[in-house]
From TrEMBL:
The gene is Tmem8a. The chain crosses the membrane at residues 598-617, 623-642, 658-679, 685-704. Keywords: Cell membrane, Disulfide bond, EGF-like domain, Membrane, Transmembrane, Transmembrane helix. Disulfide bonds join C465-C475, C490-C499. Its main location: membrane. This is TMM8A factor. InterPro entries: EGF (IPR000742), NGX6/PGAP6/MYMK (IPR021910).
């Protein structure tokens, strides 16, 4: 009946989209699909602003089950040994309308974590000054609707369960729990009888849909014969959904009998929990097969070496106890209690359990490194096959099986005498229990290496960013509500998931050139400092010296490549550079206004304090520079009007001052502002910003007013031989003998 279904609605707040340059630009949405969900519907809403700056845009939305989507919009290279499977995505066009709504439906979705990532196309690369232009807002929101069956029938293993499909529009949903150590599952449909004496026509679907890849098993049963479906390595300790729908007449019903059976895989024997705890000291005894103490998990281990051959012949897998050590956020190390080396035989695989089911482990990279001890391998042509899989292990590694389980395609590895090392990087591993299976293979059959054994050293760990993004990247920890994940922000032209793609990388020579241009261009302040000192503007000269010093060392520390030198904290250097730049403009314009000295110095100090406060509030805001400039210009214009009205002529009065100093200085300042605000990009930053340094410094040298006529250059007090001192009073222009 319809009352057996319950609909639920989940929503998250909308997020403003960004143009894509690295994974941090993608906006992530995290949802949890409840158990027994038979229908999932995503409501995707994208909208844009209404201003003239808003153009047609395409929003790309990626979906993935169990972990954030692994995407590559820029087409860059992934690190070697990394596993990459294309993500499932849809595109939402914002062409004519300012709002677009799209639905995505998924039947029988897998229960657990689902992730959505949305982003705009690739960023243009232009450096925009905050406040000069208003970017168009593009907003995306994802809502989730689920239809859940409240009383889904449970199919018990070994117990026949009769069921009836009322109509094709109402398929039958049942679930069965897969026990641990299940090696094979078999589902049978018997005694199928259709109404009106018609032949049965059924469609059976096992498993749930997962994105980007789905491994549902589908079989069509026709007639009254027994229909069966077998699964190798079904997911351990999970509910498995089974959907049966009728393909017959619209009003016809179908009755049938369902039966599920499992074939168990007998692991190595286990002993008491106390033996597991004391294993770290004694290194003897067997291990338990269930989860141990907090922070550790294990599966049953083999008997000691004296009984190992017997255990291998009587069990289908040999397990090694593994301890999970949480080091930090999205940082885990797996430690083998029997040492880093594990024995690998040919009769049954050696199994290691890697626990990644805490819900907070899918935001990093799982790294598995295997090293074969060549001296332990007696047969030169033998190989050690390995398989990393989620949910259930691969219990038979041979040439015919491609490292796959019932609902997961694993990642194969191989080692031999010619290549003794193998490495695997799983980017954003899905939340689940992962397994590492190892088995010794011989080209002439398993009988050839029946008595042989190989030693393999296993290093497995979970890290936020593989290799910490390398020398040309920065690992950033990202957050969406309570979920944490990591991404690499690359620099110096490097790209890729772990900043390993050097196709557009800057050479060391280009990096050195960029550093030299950005630092040595600040030496153009030396002429401005010399002019200020010559004209007795010592305070202004001190400000220019401060600006030149901190701008030089800030850009030496701000370089993305290897040519970097930081004399102090980066944030301190950046703040001092911004402060010196704005204060330099402030004191220059006030100096040009020719106000009284006491008023000028008061404005110097008060303006510097206000500029320091505004930069602390918003360091990159355009009004932090434009505000003091405009206010200083108002003061200068008012002072010039006052001087001109008092003298009865234009101020400054000399046409040479206008033609040879003021107009060139103003032109240089306007060109500098244009380069800074409209021409800088990530590619040309090192020379356009250097031009900005040169133009600003030259404009200051032109705009500084001449020295006061009453003040002599370097008029230091003159000392007389008779110990009398002549003092000069600038206000009264009198001399007094003291």
């Amino acid at each position: 009946a319809d009352s057996l279904y319950v609909s639920e609605y989940f929503s998250q707040s909308a997020q403003k989209l960004s143009f894509y340059s690295w994974y941090g630009n993608a906006k992530l949405f995290h949802f949890h699909v409840p158990e027994d969900t038979v229908l999932l519907r995503w409501l995707l809403q994208a909208s844009r602003g209404k201003g003239p700056e808003c153009t047609d845009m395409e929003v790309t939305v990626h979906f993935r089950y169990g972990a954030p989507p692994v995407i590559n919009p820029l087409g860059t290279r992934f690190p070697p040994n990394a596993t990459v499977r294309p993500s499932y995505n849809v595109s939402i066009a914002l062409a004519g309308a300012a709002h677009n709504t799209t639905f995505v439906n998924i039947t029988t979705p897998a229960a657990g974590d689902w992730f959505i990532a949305a982003h705009l196309p690739q960023a243009a690369g232009r450096i925009e000054v905050k406040g000069f232009s208003t970017p168009c807002p593009y907003v995306f929101q994802a809502d989730m609707f689920v239809l859940r069956l409240t009383d889904m029938p449970v199919l018990e293993p070994g117990v026949a369960m009769p069921q009836t499909i009322v109509a094709p529009a109402k398929p039958l949903h049942v679930k069965v729990f897969v026990p641990k150590h299940a090696a094979r599952m078999r589902l049978e449909l018997r005694s199928c009888v259709a109404s009106e004496q018609k032949a049965c026509a059924l469609r059976v679907v096992l498993g749930s849909i997962t994105l980007p890849q789905s491994f549902q098993r589908i079989v069509t049963c026709v007639g009254n014969i027994t229909c069966s479906l077998a699964l190798d390595s079904p997911p351990w300790e999970k509910w498995l959904q089974i959907m049966v729908e009728s393909l017959g007449a619209a009003n016809g019903s179908v009755s049938l009998v369902m039966l599920a059976s499992f074939t168990a895989c007998r692991p190595g024997s286990s002993s008491s929990f106390l033996s597991f705890i004391s294993l770290n000291q004694s290194q003897t005894g067997a291990r338990p097969g269930s989860t141990g103490a907090a922070g550790s998990s294990a599966v049953p281990a083999a008997e000691p070496s004296r009984n190992e051959s017997k255990q291998r012949s009587s069990s289908c897998l040999q397990t090694q106890p593994v301890v999970r050590e949480d080091l930090d956020v999205v940082s885990v190390r797996y430690r083998l209690l029997n040492g880093p080396s594990v024995p690998v035989g040919s009769l049954s695989p050696t199994l290691l359990l890697l626990n990644l089911n805490t819900g907070m482990d899918s935001g990093g990279s799982l790294v598995v490194n295997l090293l074969l001890n060549k001296t332990s391998l007696s047969l030169a042509n033998a190989t050690v096959a390995a398989c990393v899989s989620a949910a259930s292990p691969v219990l038979s590694l041979n040439a015919t099986q491609n490292c796959s389980t019932a609902f997961f395609q694993g990642y194969p590895l191989s080692m031999g005498t010619s290549s003794a090392e193998a490495m695997l990087i799983v980017l954003y591993p899905q939340t689940d229990v992962w397994f590492l299976s190892l088995q010794l293979l011989c080209p002439k059959g398993q009988g050839e290496c029946k008595a042989s054994e190989a030693k393999v050293t296993v290093f497995a760990y979970l890290t936020p960013c593989f290799n910490d993004c390398g020398p040309y990247g920065q690992c950033s920890l990202l957050r969406r509500h309570g979920y944490l994940y990591a991404g690499c922000s690359c620099k110096a032209g490097w790209g890729g998931w772990s900043c390993t793609d050097d196709s557009k990388a800057q050479s060391v020579g280009v990096q050195n050139l960029a550093t030299l241009l950005l630092t040595l261009s600040n030496l153009m302040f030396l002429p401005a400092i010399a002019v200020a000192v010559h004209r007795c503007y010592l305070v202004e000269a001190s400000v220019y010296t401060y600006t030149m010093f901190f701008s030089t060392f800030y850009h030496a520390c701000d370089q993305p490549g290897v040519a970097v030198m930081c004399i102090m904290d980066y944030d301190t250097l950046q703040y001092c550079d911004f402060l010196g730049s704005v204060v330099s403009i402030w004191v220059t314009i006030l100096c040009m206004s020719r106000v009284k000295k006491i008023l000028k110095y008061v404005l110097f100090v008060l303006g510097t304090l206000l500029i320091a406060m505004s930069l602390q509030l918003d360091r990159r805001g355009v009004w932090n520079m434009m505000g003091p400039c405009l206010f200083a210009l108002v003061i200068m214009i008012a002072a010039w009007v006052h001087h001109g009205a008092r003298r009865g002529r234009c101020y400054p009065p000399s046409w040479k001052r206008w033609v040879f100093y003021l107009l060139p200085g103003i032109a240089l300042a306007f060109v500098a502002i244009s380069v800074y605000a409209f021409m800088e990009t990530n590619e040309n930053y090192y020379y356009t910003h250097s031009i900005w340094h040169v133009l600003v410094a030259c404009s200051v040298a032109f705009l500084l007013p001449p020295r006061d006529k009453q003040k002599k250059p370097w008029a230091w007090p003159q000392k007389l031989t008779c110990r009398y001192q002549i003092c000069q009073n600038d206000r009264e222009e009198l001399y007094a003998v003291t």
